[in-house]
User: What shape does this take?
Amino acid sequence: MRCWLAFSNQMKAVGFRWNEARLSLALLLLLCACSSQSASTSSVLPASTTPRLSEPETSIPQTKTMSPVVKTTLTPTPASCNRTGGKFENIEVPNTSLTYPLKVKVYFPPCYTDQPDKPYPYIVMIHGMTYKNDQWDRLGADEAADEFISSGEAPPFLIFLPYEEQTTGNLYEDGFGDAITSGLVLYVEKNYPVCKERSCRAIGGLSRGAGWAVHIGLSKPQVFGSIGAHSLPVFNGDLPAAPRWLATIPQDEMPRVYIDIGIADGGMSPAIRFEQILTDYNVPHEWYINNGEHTEGYWSSHVKEYLRWYAKGWQPEVPPVILP
Assistant: This one.
């Protein structure tokens, strides 16, 4: 319409007189003019309407399989070590948190006596409710450790199995947690040739022991660099406490965390909620839902996976391969 008005006014300005022939010519010229004007205006869009490619989504934290590189002073098993079996010994650890000495089974790796001054990493592994500290031994933790150490897949390490005598007690009234951090850890690092860096220490457990591993590992993050929670029943109060604990930990000091559970385990719901908290706080962790229930058969079938994951945290940093 604007084209027609502009053209009509221009014709009147020059004294154009309309007749049938001239009207046909005028209409033809008008169509050409309007086409030209439309083409010239549609080729330039305001900056605000220029199409833009959407940027890739970056707000979803990728934390479920991240594991930070841990640098330690550890050395591999010497080639001269050809013995394949470690051994257990029973000790009692004095402490001020319990009214009795803490009973502990200690796993020593193959060729331990050949390297009496070696700085060994170690794991504190806690048993389940109503069980004793021989549970991890019966499930095959020592055989798995022997295999990985003798093959060179893992550096030699020690395992400490503390015994919680009151497994049905209230954890907030029980001194077991303090007996681990203030008793066992100090005793171990005073009496054994272990690495004293946080990255060399791991804590793990199954069932109630998994609850203890999470509770101790997150409430006192300066102690352990890795936390393993196998068939985790989160302690009452720990789900609301976990965000507060995690908010105090610098991002580059977050512990490694491993969580697994059987798909038929009755504790699935709180375990899922705990995993979501780790995701929300960008905590490096691995999360597995496997076939199985809350049974020793389930734990024994995965014990190698557990030990392999703990040992992975002690592997030296491998430099990247740069291709030409």
